[in-house]
Write a structure and sequence with these properties.
- With 458 residues, the protein is α/β, with parallel strands linked by helices.
- The chain is built from 14 helices and 24 strands.
- The strands form seven sheets. The protein has a six-stranded mixed sheet with strand order 3-2-1-4-11-12, with helices on both faces. Strands 8-5-9-10 form a four-stranded parallel sheet, sandwiched between helices. Strands 13, 14, 15 and 18 form a four-stranded antiparallel sheet that branches.
- The protein is globular.
- The two termini are 36 Å apart.
Amino acid sequence: MAGKIRIGIDVGGTFTDAIALDNDTYEIIGTKKVHTTHEAKEGVTRGVIDILNLLLEEIKCDADDVVLIAHGTTQATNALLEGDVADIGVIGMGSGIGTAKIKADTDVGDVSLEDGKAIKTSYRFLNTADGVHEEDVNRILDEFEAEGKRVIVVSEAFSVDDPANEKAVVKTASDRHFITTATHELSKLYGLRARTKTAVINASILPKMMQTASMTEQAVKDARVRAPLMIMRSDGGVMQVDEVKKRPILTVLSGPAAGVAGALMYEKISDGIFLEVGGTSTDISAVQNGKVITKYSKIGGHNTYVSSLDIHTIGIGGGSMVRFKNRNIIDVGPRSSHIAGLGYACFADPEELKGSKVVSVTTPKDKTADFLALETPGGTRYAVTLTCAANCLGYMPEGDYARGNQDSVRIAFEALEQEFGKPAETIARNIVDIAVSKVAPAVDEFIKEYNLSQNYLS
């Protein structure tokens, strides 16, 4: 193939997607999709390697023809959601009559995350009335090292005006191979407590993200692509890999940000609501006057100084599992079938699915045991998902990636019909209605908050 191309790669919770564009016309010339490789030795990077090679092979393109690779990632978000974070040593600094307030603002304690998880912190204060003395910094670092903490946050009042003291502490810590974040590196805004919390969240995912960024960078090199690897930011911009290794917090929600950017480019939306439905979740954002609305993001309920698209993430996606009780559908999501290690019933071999019975299953991360599945005569279990219900209702056109095997869909819902004593269409409609009822309030909230006219929404 002649000409230069651009490649975009998005790593989601269920699938890793790649797309190739003609560099001159922006015409889509190739797409690929693989399951996200959570269990691989290399983690999700394995999927990036695989999909890049598959895409280049499909479009018959040489690595030298690639002029740009843009990578949207959920790794920072997932690390925070799953509690895959480092313990942090926080060094607060300041002097003068406001010392008590500085200590209160920089000693943020443990920073709570989802599901009872938290970033654990230890705190020390360094009085900087006569500057920073290396022996004082080393004493604190010795204490943190004894506690097993190798990731440090440095936070001084008014460092946005003069970061010299923060830089001095960072140098000493870096020379001792501590991983560091200084608050002035993340924001130039005042508000010491929010700035410190932002730095703690950033530092907590640094070890994980430094490893992931390095592996992704190496994957691109192994594919012999010499074009720069750019990582999507949560505000819709891009940054280089080296910056990700210092400020990974800026990539939170970068995957949805890339999706909205694509919609603006190809759909020419002026005012509208954008819904991106994946296998695990639905990301909802608003466009007003041709621009995506941004704000400072909240992470784990904490206000930060990270600018991101105003995105609402709902735990409903194509792979959302269904819960049932007493022959009634009671809920849909947020658990996705890939977490339970189950395939979608609508993609199963219809011959294998014949004679299946309805069973309740649990998942490794849930205490409830009322998720709906079909068990084949051979003992294999398949999840009944939102995608299965949509196929039953005829929503998936021919050629669509989410269109299942229609014989499998019929067999699956005949089994549900017999078990529930209700028509298949009624069961499928109930599943879809519950899913929509979870997404609709977020759409209504955007319309109300930004005073979007429903007459012109697209």
